Amino acid sequence: MHTPSSGTRDMWLMNSRNCSHEPVELTDELARFILAVHAGHGGGCRQYLAASAFCFRRTGER
Fold it and tell me: What are the C-alpha distances in Å from 16 to residues 49, 59, 60?
């Protein structure tokens, strides 16, 4: 499994820190990262909801 560099993880963390904003240009890796970081934030966390929807949609395409 590919692990993103610490610089990439820091950038992702900074860009996804606000739960009220939806993430843009999701990839499989970024969506999984956001799911891990925002797990447990509840139904109001748009970061988690968008990443979850992205992963669910991608699962249906396979």
Answer: 12, 22, 25
